[in-house]
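Lab notes, practical 5.
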Amino acid sequence: MKRDSTNPDPALPNGSVPDATRNIRDDGSEVRGALIAGLIGAVVATMGYVIYNRLEHEQKEAVRRTVTKFVEERVGEVRSMLKM
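Output from the prediction step:
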């Protein structure tokens, strides 16, 4: 990309102009936060998996029905929002 010497802050490749008010930090805090969130999510998912595997067959079926109903309702809501 050729840089214009008269314009020290050229437009981005997609044609947009950089936001001068946005504070960009290079200390890695966003990456650190994302890693912590991922780690917490992995721990919660692992705990759920362990608990689910210890349930009796009838309890597992009840959980499956509840989760299936919940997901079907949410999918229906999203579909209705997209039809607007």
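Observations recorded by the TA: The longest helix spans residues 57-82. Residues 29-82 form one domain.
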